[in-house]
Amino acid sequence: MRKQQQAERRGRIAEAICVVVLRLTGWRILARRMKGKAGTGLGEIDIVAKRGRTVAFIEVKARADHDTARESVTAAQRERIARSAQLFLARNAACAECDARFDVMSLGRRLWPRRIVDAWRP
Q1: pLDDT tens digits, residue range 83-120?
Q2: Residue 30: which CATH number?
Q3: Cβ neighbours of residue 51 under 8 Å, at least 6 residues apart?
Q4: Alpha helices in the chain (DSSP H)
Q5: How far apart are CA 116 and CA 78, in angstroms?
Q6: Full residue range of the structural domain in which residue 19 is found
Q7: CA distance to 1, 28, 73, 95, per residue, from 20 (Å)
Q8: How many structural domains does the chain have?
């Protein structure tokens, strides 16, 4: 298996684990791997989840350790995710009155993910 395929597989497994953890903690998953059209400047949002009046746009990172995972979300990536989040909120009337935030869930060598709540503000 090529490195790119391995990284893709590792990312999908990390997202699946994060979805399970989110569901176990009361979050409802609204979308996974939400992508904008190529060339639009919109980024992919790994997970969109809602609990109560909060909608979380969650970036999942699988790295050797949690600090490396957190630091791997670049400023440009945060901007693309924020633009995608605005589009999601505009298209989903049920979320229009909700509080939105951006979280990072990181998976290190251990299987239990670590969550950084409100990791950045656009």
Answers
A1: 999 989 999 988 888 999 999 998 877 768 889 899 88
A2: 3.40.1350.10
A3: 25, 26, 27, 28
A4: 3-24, 66-71, 75-91
A5: 14
A6: 3-120
A7: 27, 10, 22, 22
A8: 1
